Amino acid sequence: MGMHVLVIGAAGMIGRKLVARIAADGGIGGRKVDKLSLVDVVPPEMPPGFTGKAWAADISSPGEAVQMVAGRPELIFHLAAIVSGEAEADFDKGYRINLDGTRLLFEAIRAEGMKQPYMPRVVFTSSIAVFGAPFPGAINDEFFTTPLTSYGTQKAIGELLLADYSRRGIFDGIGIRLPTICIRPGKPNKAASGFFSGILREPLAGQEAVLPVPDTVMHWHASPRAAVGFLLHAATLDTAPLGARRNLTMPGLAATVAEQIEALRRVAGDKAVALIKRVPDETIGRIVAGWPRRFEAKRAEALGFQAEKNFDEIIRVHIEDELGGRLP
Amino acid sequence: MGMHVLVIGAAGMIGRKLVARIAADGGIGGRKVDKLSLVDVVPPEMPPGFTGKAWAADISSPGEAVQMVAGRPELIFHLAAIVSGEAEADFDKGYRINLDGTRLLFEAIRAEGMKQPYMPRVVFTSSIAVFGAPFPGAINDEFFTTPLTSYGTQKAIGELLLADYSRRGIFDGIGIRLPTICIRPGKPNKAASGFFSGILREPLAGQEAVLPVPDTVMHWHASPRAAVGFLLHAATLDTAPLGARRNLTMPGLAATVAEQIEALRRVAGDKAVALIKRVPDETIGRIVAGWPRRFEAKRAEALGFQAEKNFDEIIRVHIEDELGGRLP
Asked: What is the pTM assigned to this prediction?
């Protein structure tokens, strides 16, 4: 019998790619998936050939999380979140969705397990936003979480809940701290991190892009394809070696803006690089200065999680997955 | 004008000692205290000479936290908690009091501040239970929190909330991770940590005590008097140097059971030591093996927090504060 998979946040950028990949593969880790439950605040698209349901719901509304797990999915991806900027601007909404929503989901699983034994795998997307400056040169797997945003706080709390519910045997959870995803497809957005993608995505499409920080800024990156790979690997991994430490910093690529630009030059030439306009922005500079630059993600690497090794690869993934395999 | 101080958890062991110390001193850090609001699940005792109110309330019941801060106390000690063993036995109660109760308090302060500007100092008692084995030899101030109990999880979440609410300017918070308090006054209890106090308290009173673990077990201790000192120092400390890292591991004394026993011998003689009966208990041994043994509490020490330097001192504090200054 095939697996029933629930994806909460299935209409987001990562959610859509995850569902598309499951549909393309027909399963996860060699096991057939035949039923999908797909939820988001807007109705997600159901790929053809699957039973199940796609619907719109607010995870923080009473009873909605209960509905999500009522079909007893064996595997749950919890990707739903109010993102960093919005959670900072709207205190109540961020706590309601990111903290209460997560807790309601975990409680719904617990309630389901009280009816009859139930032990789904729960893959929770966390973020490197659980960390806050000042940092050591490279952040190891035992560095403490002192978030500098409400979003990072809410993710860190989600991690603690995930670990405690797992320790209690309520579900089999694993938390995945995603690097900054680069190159994000789509239009430029106003996220402070937007330029990391923009300075590659726009020139690759023949458009101008703005670079608001110096070339020396270093950050921690992985492609959307790598992110989906992390989630699928987390879905089938043996969690026994994790012990009680259920949350993992994912591998990524520490690269400076200068290294990003040189990779762009190698892949798309000087003409593409010339489309990057330097317009320093002190506000963005200050925000980015508080972000982590480099991790030693030894635990995740030892468990088989893999990210790109250089920015040429990240750019190639974008060209393959978003631009039909070639530059316009 | 004197200060108005709210103590939540004022009827507990530390709460009572804190209130007694404030009453004896007449103030905190050189500033007069004239009004006390004292709350606990049982009605706390109001010391003579203060205005204010002592009442029983459940911090997790709707509206109760709002009542507690309605008088706009300038200083709030939040000591209320379901303890480790009970929070592990009663999942819902632990989360309700330790997580929801704390959040309701923080939200009540936020609501008060929306009416008109309000910026109380909030001193939150956390615990070394936010840490979970395996540990390095000494746990530094940047070690991650991977609690192995629901109590530790709830305290770690309280720390994250405290830091975020403080960062947001909702209040001026400081979290104090207490060592195991030794010698706890009163009757023996069933806490797994009870023997650390019992093997000293009972022999000092001429009673037998049971030692369930080997002499080599090391743990992290401070006296009740030191704990009250931490809270009072936290109440008046300049929080600016803390930055966004509002939670501090308190200094303490790393000592083995053998060192405890030798201190008892020096203070009360071989006759007292002979009252310790060795009755190995594997369950307690296993629990204690997961507990932290030693910290490097450099940040707290640099900020002026002080604990005892040896077990002779911890025993003397007990004799002075609990036994009227001399052995029976």
From this structure: 0.97
